[in-house]
Amino acid sequence: MLFVLFQLIGGIILSFGWIPQIIQMLRTKSAEDLNKNTFLLLFTGIGFMEVYGVHLAMEGVGYAFLITNSMSLVLVVIILALIMKYRHAAKKKNFDQLS
To answer: How far apart are CA 49 and CA 66, in angstroms?
Structure first.
């Protein structure tokens, strides 16, 4: 039980580690310095771990892992969406300035 608690607390801390990046992107309305491929790889890796977490949960174990991994997956999806949104807006702005 102690190790499940460690996993849950550690996973929550790791998941919440994405929130400052999301806040900064929302505040600056920019994703200029972020590498989209990095976040695509993170999304893919977390997605594979999500499949493993579902498998564990179906066996009656690993709920803490599934919960915290799902949190990370959602937050990385939010970051990817913001990268695409702000990159599209920046390209549109640059195109409009050329016209």
So the answer is: 9
With a cut of 70, list the residues of the chain below it in pLDDT. 99
70: Cβ contacts below 8 Å, ≥ 6 apart: 50, 53
CA gyration radius, the chain: 17
Greatest C-alpha distance within the chain: 63
By the 8 A CB rule, do 53 and 69 touch?
yes
| pLDDT of res. 99 | 63
Q: Which residue has the tokens 């970051």?
A: 79
What is the pTM for the complete model shown? Answer: 0.88
Sorted by sequence, the CB contacts under 8 Å of residue 18 that are 6+ apart come out as 72, 75, 76, 78, 79
> Which residue has 């990370």 as its token pair?
72
